[in-house]
Design a protein that fits this description.
Number of helices: 2
Radius of gyration: 12 Å
Number of strands: 4
Structural class: alpha+beta
Distance between the termini: 27 Å
Mean pLDDT: 92
Order of helices and strands: EHEHEE
CATH class: Alpha Beta
CATH architecture: 2-Layer Sandwich
Length: 88
Amino acid sequence: MDAFTPDRTLDLSGLKCPLPALRTEKALRALAPGTRLAVISTDPLAALDIPHLVNQTGHRLAEMRREAGVAVFLIEVLPPAMRPAARD
């Protein structure tokens, strides 16, 4: 796959759990399939919550990076027909 270039960026810096996951979920519901979303968070729990959310909603977590207290999640919004069954 080519380099991940986001179509949208959601900067959630400074927000604490559960807000990063809730706002990411809201953004994913509003985006069209095929959209690539970058989520930026400074909340340490986002490293657990956002990958879990992506897994539960059936989208694709293309990449997760952490550096100097900032996590960046690169998510691809998949159409319903392409979403795998949610896993726990």
